Amino acid sequence: MFLRHISVLGALILALGNAPAHATLNDFASSPRVPEPQRIDPHEIAYRTPTATQTHLILSLGDRRVYVYHNRVLQSSYPVAVGKPGSETPLGTFQVFQMVKDPIWESPFTGEIIPAGVPQNPLGPRWIAFWTDGNNAIGFHGTDSPQSIGRAESWGCARMLDDDAIALYDQVQIGTTVTVIP
């Protein structure tokens, strides 16, 4: 604890030493401690991608959209719902590893199985998985809750309107790169 106080005191002295002569401690107390994160441009990510001749998905959590690029050219984009606090959609670069038409859903909480094609199926008509921990998977899918699109309300997946999930499914394949950005 003592070393922590020394470090804080040292940082304050260093900050005061670099401050203008008229600065007070209140100026430091009210100033932001962490700089605002810069928005990451999905188009810049697509341009820097080494897979220039392939399809690449950029899932922007801040924009709440998935952007579809082919040969570094934007082909389409779709609104999505993303993971809610405590179940955030993972950041990073992944690959599509599973695609299912008319998926059956099994609740990870109750084990209840909801068949394909019924309105209560939370996966809708398509499932495109890009992340797994070995037990659970996260991916793009349709939804039985279209009002959630544009919000942070999922368990980590990217929910889409059913027609958009079908359209996205037709543009990707196993191995398609998915980059998730803040």
UniProtKB/TrEMBL annotation:
Q: Which UniProt keywords apply?
A: Cell shape, Cell wall biogenesis/degradation, Glycosyltransferase, Hydrolase, Peptidoglycan synthesis, Signal, Transferase
- List the pathway annotation: Cell wall biogenesis; peptidoglycan biosynthesis
Q: Which Gene3D superfamilies match?
A: L,D-transpeptidase catalytic domain-like
Coiled coil, from the record: none
Per the record, the domain of life is Bacteria
Q: Which residue positions does the secretion signal occupy? A: 1-23
Pfam family example for this protein?
Answer: YkuD
- Record domain L,D-TPase catalytic: where: 55-181
Active site as annotated: H141 (proton donor/acceptor), C157 (nucleophile)
**Annotated family:** Belongs to the YkuD family.
Q: What is this protein called?
A: L,D-transpeptidase
